[in-house]
Amino acid sequence: MLNFDSDALKDILKDVCELTNTVITLFDDNKNDVFSMPYPSKHICKNLRIVKTLDDKCKKCDNDALNHAYESRSPYIYRCHMGMTEAVLPIIQDDKIIGYITLGKVVEEKDIPFLKQQIRSCCKIYDLPEAELLSEIDKMPIIKHDTLTACTNILAMLSDYLLLNKIIKPNSPPLHTQIHDYIIKNISADLTVKTLCSYFKISKSMLYKISIDNYGCGISEYIKKLRIEGAKRLLGTSMNITQVAEAVGMSDASYFIKIFKKETGRTPLQYKRSSAINNKIEPFNKLSLD
């Protein structure tokens, strides 16, 4: 889900809508329609989508376009099943897609005959008011493809502005907190840079930057630190050295002993013997990010 300031969003988008004579819609990262300006009731699509079959086709068009934008991570201009044109672009923060903005519906002059043909066909099949729908086509903005591309580029800059001023923001913890929590949850697994990049859909360079900026070291070093901290806690329990090593993702006990001594100055056994912690320790999965 997205958090957004609806009043501020309306104030900003109304000028764009007035300039382009289009509807601008905001989707969250789960592809849910969460905001529209102006309201969809003013658009030709409302009169078509009262028919479930047409509504399903419209939803498929929207979903296919959003998937395309997700895969390409870039703006996508397309023609819907009726012949109208729309643009969708992903909203990206910290190299992660947190939502989408769409701009439409408009029509390119070359597509008007096809659109009218589709309207007539739908009216005949679904008993819709043909004259009314055809007249609405005359109210639609006719736009050149290059102009739509320019509008889309402006919308991309606008999305950056909305993020910078926190008018829209993800309804989730910061990415560095999510990464920390994922590492803790999967500390016994084979955690690699590739695994983290794949799971969070970010690049290696972005992962490195997030790690340096928030943890003060590279991600591999940070994982090692968390494993040592986890081992310290588990050494205060009845678990033996081998079990502790496996629990923190270091199944090679010799390697674990070597790394643990290097980081703490003591072997795991020495630490276990000197530890004042008995059975009351903070669970490792509660290890927080300071």
Low-confidence runs: 277-282
In total, how many beta strands? Answer: 7
> Going across the major beta sheet, what is the strand order?
3-2-6-5-4
CA-CA gap between termini? 26 Å
- Please give the oligomerization state of what you see: single chain
Q: Helical stretch count?
A: 13
Q: What is the residue-averaged pLDDT?
A: 88
Largest sheet: 5 strands, antiparallel
- Class of secondary structure makeup: alpha+beta
Order of helices and strands: EHEEHHEEEHHHEHHHHHHH
Radius of gyration: 27 Å
What's the shape?
A: elongated
| Beta-strand content estimate | 5-15%
Helix content: 40-55%
What keywords describe this structure?
two-stranded antiparallel sheet; alpha+beta; 54% helix; 290 residues; five-stranded antiparallel sheet
How would you characterize this protein structure?
There is one protein chain. Helix content is 54%, strand content 14%. It is elongated. Helix 4 runs antiparallel to helix 5. It has 13 helices and 7 strands. A 5-stranded antiparallel β-sheet has the order 3-2-6-5-4, sandwiched between helices. A two-stranded antiparallel sheet has the order 1-7.
What is the strand and helix layout of this fold?
Layout: E1 2-4, H1 6-20, E2 23-28, E3 33-37, H2 44-48, H3 52-72, E4 76-79, E5 85-93, E6 96-106, H4 112-126, H5 130-137, H6 145-164, E7 168-170, H7 175-185, H8 193-200, H9 204-215, H10 219-234, H11 241-247, H12 253-264, H13 268-274
Antiparallel strand pairs: 1-7, 2-3, 2-6, 4-5, 5-6
Helix pairs in contact: 4-5
